[in-house]
Amino acid sequence: NRQVHRAWARSRDMNFSLAGLVGFDLHGKTVAVLGTGAIGSAAARILSGFGCRVVAFDSAPSAELQALGVRYAPLEQCLAEADIVSLYLPLLPSTRNIINDDTLALMKPNAMLINCGRGGLLDTKAALRALKSRRLAS
Question: Which letter does DSSP use for residue 119 in this model?
Fold first, then answer.
């Protein structure tokens, strides 16, 4: 999303235009926080401060986050509603490849996926297919 290579190439050519390089505002976006342990909770609080609507998935909902306006929902609903999906889950047999072809198909077209957890949470080949088909934002 940062278009770093494109910006570098333009600056080499003395082109400092921002056209096509600017990202998006987080304010007003729906962010799914999957896993609300210590790190996921901190992320949810920060995202709430940016004006994001935070929907979360965890086996143990946090009353503190709910008091801040974070809404807990089933995984499928989180994925379907979110503009951005951020992973903070532990890697367990039940969470291995939790993001796969089936769950990626539930996400909005051009949603952004951020994996702050373990690599095994994500089926890499499925993610590559989603990127190549532009199902996921790059």
Answer: G
